[in-house]
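We close this part of the discussion by returning to an individual protein. Part of our work consisted of pairing the sequence of a single chain with a tokenised description of its backbone. No coordinates are needed to read the tokens, only the vocabulary itself. The amino acid sequence and the backbone structure tokens for this protein are reproduced below:
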Amino acid sequence: MVRPVKWRKICQMPISSGFRPLSDDLIPKDIVKMAVDEYETVRLIDFEGLKQEECAKRMNVARTTVQSIYYDARKKIAESLVQNKILVIEGGNYELCDGRSLLCDHKYCMLKNTNENNSKEIRKLEYQVKSVT
């Protein structure tokens, strides 16, 4: 029997869907694809400075799974940098944080940031309406 897919929790989608070298002589096939869950491990471990155990709790997976995902992500980043290839971030087995998880600090949570931005936009519109009237 096939084991069911375990969805990895992601708090933030990448701001950019990819990166490319500055040189113009790229061949379109020179692409390295990184999954969103691989991006998330790099963000949590390298950017936020979490240990693999803490990253595993946030993503709702085993530490060994995080270790494997992180290893694959670092290999892809290295391949992109060293071999002058385009890095594209897309796909993977993930679900966005709903803002209710106790494991997430919601510092970079997409839902929280979206709600805060919507609140700022509403306050800005309310101010503009008051100034006009």
About this structure: The first strand starts at residue 8 and ends at 10. The chain has four helices and five strands. The mean pLDDT is 79. Residues 8-132 form one domain.
